[in-house]
Amino acid sequence: MTVEHSIRTSDSLRNVRYEIRGNLARRALELARKGYEIISLNIGNPALFGFRTPETMRLAMIENFPESEGYCHQKGIFPAREAVVMQQQARGVSGVSAEEVFIGNGVSELIDLALRALLNEGDEVLVPSPDYPLWSAAVNLNRGRAVHYACRPENDFVPDPAEIESLVTPRTRAIVIVNPNNPTGAVYPRAVIEAIVRLAERRGLVLLCDEIYDQITYDGAEFVPVAPLVRDTVCVSMSGLSKVYRACGYRVGWAVVSGKLKAAGDFLAALELLASLRLCSNVPGQWAVQTALGGYQSIRELTQPGGRLFESRRAIIESVADNPSLQVSTPKGALYAFVGVNESVPQFDDQAFALDLLERKHVLVAPGVSFNVPYRNHFRITNLPDAQTLRTVFSRMGDLLTEYRNKA
């Protein structure tokens, strides 16, 4: 008689969650296969909602296709890295060359590489709450411990630098800044960014800056890049083609190491070793970087009044205002709103609501608990659909929330 044994999985996955593509997304796929039309608002995937990558980027990739059949340098092709250097110099970052730029398979890979190069067993990383859950997951997978600093709804999800400093211990190695923020849409004021930078410098902490939404801001909100403010510690700035240039599938991101480079020698060597082990990142997509950063910035048309992203965001804000059970801190950047449900719906549970909304109204959202928050009354949606689709979504939500209130 054969005895079947289940395969034991790694203990490192014990504290790893990524519910954005978890059980709810799998259930949505099952419903879609049965013929139901699901409105999926759980992921910021521009192509899903009809956005196209700028034509000039597609042409740059096609024209250089014959040069893309072999491995490239482990840090990436030189024209892409040099374009990133020029962008950093235009923002006021000095002392950076192509040698301090790493091209990765999206920012996601670079987050993993940076943490793997930095962390030892039990090292702590200060991560925002709510966070983009990849950050907490990557810290845990690389033997570290994610310590969350609160970005509270009552403060428009902007962190308190003094509270961040109170969490620093001898094991703290780095502070993660996600600005403009996913999932909340917050854009941090210059004074807050400067205070966090000075804190990192005082305590000898590395700054890990997720700036993938750097040009997606609304109503005149100012994006403040971290790197130009850093003098006396190491800063790793990350961005890419996925969001601003609507090219998620190209899988091209970059990380720039700046600041106190004399202290970063071993870290840079570790990053290069890890980059070498994976040979190189996707080569065809890298040829679009120079054209993207040096060309016309079409994202501005989308984020201004009358633009698709601006008007969709307006539809979210107005729909929330029209619903007695909902509230939201107006998103100033990125592609999301982190919507709260108030006390008019007692004992609200974000996961139960998300499942009910999916099963009964065929709308998929990401429950707030997916983003490592201690409360259970929020959910994230993206403003990528057109305004009318979003108004339809909130009408369906309104029907469901009215039922909840009546039952209560």
Layout of helices and strands:
Layout: H1 23-33, E1 39-40, H2 55-63, H3 78-90, E2 101-104, H4 106-118, E3 124-129, H5 133-141, E4 145-150, H6 161-166, E5 172-178, H7 190-203, E6 206-210, E7 234-240, E8 253-259, H8 265-277, H9 283-286, H10 289-294, H11 299-303, H12 308-322, E9 326-328, E10 336-341, H13 350-361, E11 363-364, E12 366-367, E13 378-382, H14 387-407
Parallel strand pairs: 1-11, 3-4, 3-5, 5-6, 6-7
Antiparallel strand pairs: 2-8, 7-8, 9-10, 10-13, 12-13
Helix pairs in contact: 1-13, 4-5, 4-8, 12-14
What gross morphology would you assign? Answer: globular
Tally of domains? 2
Which class best fits the helix and strand makeup? alpha/beta
* Share of residues in helices: 25-40%
- CATH architecture title of the largest domain: 3-Layer(aba) Sandwich
CATH class of the largest domain: Alpha Beta
**What string gives the helices and strands in order?**
HEHHEHEHEHEHEEEHHHHHEEHEEEH
User: Could you tell me the radius of gyration in angstroms?
Assistant: 21 Å
Low-confidence stretches: none
Q: What is the rounded distance between the termini? A: 55 Å
Number of helices: 14
Q: Provide the CATH topology of the largest domain.
A: Aspartate Aminotransferase, domain 2
Beta-strand residue fraction: 15-25%
What's the average pLDDT?
95
CATH homologous superfamily designation of the largest domain: Type I PLP-dependent aspartate aminotransferase-like (Major domain)
Spatial strand arrangement across the major sheet: 2-8-7-6-5-3-4
Largest sheet: 7 strands, mixed
